[in-house]
Design a protein that fits this description.
Layout: E1 2-3, H1 6-11, E2 40-45, H2 51-63, E3 69-74, E4 80-81, E5 85-86, E6 91-95, E7 113-116, E8 124-126, E9 130-133, E10 135-137, E11 143-147, E12 151-154, E13 157-159, E14 169-173, E15 183-187, E16 190-192, E17 195-199, E18 205-209, E19 212-216, E20 224-226, E21 240-243, E22 246-250, E23 257-261, E24 266-269, E25 272-275, E26 283-288, E27 301-304, E28 307-309, E29 312-317, E30 329-332, E31 335-338, E32 361-363, E33 379-380, E34 432-436, H3 441-452, E35 459-464, H4 474-481, E36 485-488, H5 495-504, E37 510-514, H6 522-530, E38 534-538, H7 543-556, E39 562-567, H8 571-583, E40 586-591, H9 598-606, E41 611-615, H10 617-623, E42 628-629, H11 634-645, E43 651-656, H12 661-672, E44 677-680, H13 687-693, E45 700-704, H14 716-719
Helix pairs in contact: 3-5, 3-12, 4-7, 4-8, 4-12, 7-9, 8-11, 8-12
């Protein structure tokens, strides 16, 4: 990532700050020309109220078309005022002062930059991608953000002024239909006396994960309110995931709920709800079936592995004019032993078409304690005597893939257009489906490495855990060096990764850091050397430059027979391409969206004799090469790449299309086993089992990440 420098600021006279405004400072100079095409830029703020000017500068630079993302790093904990709205030409990331990793699980006292509102009572209007880390939000009269694009808030604090405000909100989420793929994420933060999110539209994916949320019924009726929406698209397209949070409520009165659900495709998983008021009409989760005119009825709603302490765990107002279909709502594996009243407390209000009692809610496999389940509209089971808390399953140890039995010698894939001979493997028994996961993305990467390298490794590749930029080209290198990929935060070595390095590396083992010191700091390098490892870096001025440097390393190893070009702003295409590049003895290069990066163009020009294949529509447009692979979405592109580059794969990796980390670490493993990576949504499309069925050489399927990413009930189709 490139930083604004003193000379460059002087050159930006058109962006001169108004009198009294705080100038933006910087910590590093560069010799490269500022007009050079690049993917990332960093602007540093070190005085109060410099943020708005930094945002204006970031937008101005991105409008030139050369920069896609800007990080604004605030090196002071003095207050910063948010503007009334943001509509930038690319993504802006705001990083607060202090340790932005502090606060995981809700440390509200960690030092953070304070963000205060502009004059708008409706909060900052978010109309372009925005990420905020390590801040404290204060003084918002109504709400902090009105989200109409993409927003991520992490490691942050919001405390509503509940004494005189009726319903303070962190954000209202209303994604227009024109932006169906946008995402909103709240994670690792502390929220008190406020609605975390009012979700109005039906277009955006929302994740609320690993937060501490303190609900005050006097200031807000709910902490998460999910409205019905007639703009809701095809079922399963835009799920809401609420997982691993700690919710508590004081003074919960009749009609106040911690979470209110009024639309399909909502998962409430592995949370703890503590309602201190014993009011029998105050719920941890309230299921609300909307009127036909308001939106679609509930479907694919899942409440699983939660603990409910006090109040009523799950209630319902299934009282509207369209009945539910059987099993539309699943309430399984929950602990209701400390709740009161009946489950669920249904009401009809005289509507004639209220759903019938025979199975509108699948409420089985719960620990009921003494709760009354005799008068409810649900399938229930006898009182269970034990509650089994959710524990991420320990994956079975992957078995070495069984090679197919082929009559005669098995030819290598040929570049010739002539038909390849068919492969007819003998039956190898049932396909092994192994989930490899940890509680976090960092620990999932550790599990992948430890399952594959039981006797240790000579080399480990280390990548940044929160941004994909510099790491997406690493998979072919990992396969060539027989190295696992581990993850860590930028500023220090993650403890779980440090422990894994001790186990994996012998004394003097190599650790390769992907990216410069903005991606992985000097402290990370020092932490690694403190464990006895030797440190190397592969880094360019930006992600495209890092990919070129990675390709140079592979060229030195005489492993550059093909080049795959993918969109560097789309991690999905990049990580789909990684195992394919490894299979083709090649490397992955990057474009800047649908424009060719100059670093990539120079490398291609210098190696004109190497075959080039474009992966994904943007790369096809940017490169103009004849050999190309495209797909309508991540899954379709995955399968198209798998079919073109893997003649008889022995293994297939499956990872979520929502986050990059699982497919990065998993890509190194599945590439080692000569297999492709397939990215999927939470509900796996039928095209994936169909591909596996049509590819009998596959004996192992590795599923990366826990059931909150790829649910357990989706795995059966992969084994058939």
């Amino acid at each position: 990532m490139k930083k604004i420098t003193p000379a460059l600021l002087l050159a930006l006279a058109a962006l001169a700050l108004p009198a009294g405004a705080t100038p933006l400072t910087q910590t590093q100079t560069t010799t490269a020309g500022f007009a050079q095409v690049q993917a990332d830029l960093e602007i540093v703020v070190d005085k109060a109220n410099g943020l708005s000017d930094a945002i204006d500068m970031a937008d101005a630079e991105m409008k030139k078309g050369q920069i896609k993302e800007v990080t604004i790093t605030i090196n002071t904990c003095e207050p910063q005022k948010l503007p009334g709205g943001i509509r930038a030409a690319g993504k802006i990331t705001i990083v607060g002062c202090g340790d932005v990793s502090a606060g995981v699980g809700g440390d509200k006292d960690a030092e953070r930059t304070v963000l205060t509102p502009s004059s708008s009572s409706e909060g900052m209007l978010v109309q372009s991608p925005l990420e905020i880390r390590g801040v404290k939000l204060e003084g918002f009269p109504n709400q902090a953000f009105n989200v109409q694009d993409e927003l991520t808030i992490s490691n942050s604090v919001f405390i509503g002024r509940s004494s005189f405000l009726s319903r303070p909100r962190v954000a209202s989420v209303d994604i227009p239909s024109a932006k169906p793929a946008q995402k909103v994420v709240f994670r690792d933060s502390y929220f008190e006396g406020a609605i975390v999110a009012q979700i109005k539209g039906g277009q955006g994916k929302v994740t609320i994960s690993k937060n501490v949320v303190k609900h005050d019924a006097q200031s807000s009726q709910y902490t998460v309110e999910i409205f019905p929406s007639n703009q809701y698209p095809t079922a399963g397209a835009n799920p809401i995931l609420i997982e691993d949070n700690q919710f508590s409520s004081t003074g919960a009165q009749g009609g106040s709920n911690v979470i209110r659900i009024g639309r399909p495709d909502v998962t409430v998983h592995n949370n703890t709800f503590t309602l201190e008021n014993p009011d029998k009409t105050a719920y941890g989760v309230n299921l609300y079936n909307p009127r036909k005119s308001d939106g679609p009825v509930l479907k694919n709603v899942s409440v699983t592995y939660n603990v409910f302490n006090g109040g009523l765990g799950v209630g319902n107002t299934l009282d509207r004019d369209t009945p539910l279909t059987p099993d539309a709502v699943k309430v399984n594996h929950n602990d209701f032993s400390k709740t009161t009243g009946a489950f669920p407390k249904g009401s009809t209000y005289g509507y004639p078409n209220t759903a019938t009692p025979d199975g509108i809610i699948d409420a089985t496999l719960n620990f009921w304690g003494t709760i009354d389940t005799t008068t409810v509209q649900a399938k229930t089971d006898p009182v269970l005597g034990k509650f089994e808390p959710f524990v991420p399953p320990v994956p079975p140890q992957p078995q070495p893939p069984v090679p197919p039995v082929v009559p005669g010698p098995q030819p290598r894939p040929s570049a010739s257009p002539s038909p390849s001979p068919s492969v007819s493997p003998s039956p190898a028994g049932p396909r092994v489906v192994a989930r490899v996961s940890g509680e976090t993305r960092v620990e999932t990467a550790v599990r992948v490495a430890e399952s594959e390298y039981k006797d240790g490794a000579k080399v480990v590749i280390l990548a940044r855990s929160d941004v994909a930029a510099d790491s997406v080209s690493a998979v072919p290198l990992a396969e060539e060096l027989d190295a696992p990929i581990l993850l860590t935060q930028s500023d220090s070595l993650h403890p779980a990764t440090g422990a894994a390095l001790k186990k994996l590396l012998p004394s003097g083992g190599r650790v390769i850091l992907m990216g410069g010191e903005v991606a992985l700091s000097a402290k990370v390098a020092n932490d690694v050397t403190g464990l006895g490892g030797s440190v190397e870096r592969i880094a360019g001025l930006n992600r495209a430059g890092t990919a070129v440097e990675t390709a140079n390393q592979l060229m030195k190893a005489d492993k550059l027979k093909q080049l795959l070009v993918a969109d560097g702003t789309d991690w999905q295409a990049d990580l789909i391409a990684g195992p394919a590049a490894a299979e083709a003895d090649g490397a992955t290069l990057l474009t800047n969206g649908d424009v060719m990066a100059p670093e990539t163009a120079a490398f291609l020009s210098a190696h004109a004799n190497v075959k080039v294949t474009a992966i994904g529509a943007n790369a096809v447009k940017a490169s103009g090469v004849a050999s190309k692979v495209e797909g309508a979405d991540a899954t379709a592109l995955s399968l198209a790449v798998a079919k073109q580059f893997f003649r008889a794969p022995k293994a297939v990796g499956v990872a979520t299309d929502a986050e990059f980390a699982d497919s990065l670490a998993g890509g190194a493993q599945v590439a080692k086993h000569d297999g492709p990576m397939v990215l999927v949504p939470a509900s796996i499309p039928g095209t994936v089992p169909a591909y596996l069925k049509a590819t009998p050489s596959v004996t192992n399927v590795y599923v990366y990440g826990g059931p909150t990413r790829i649910p357990e009930d989706q795995l059966a189709g992969l084994a058939e």
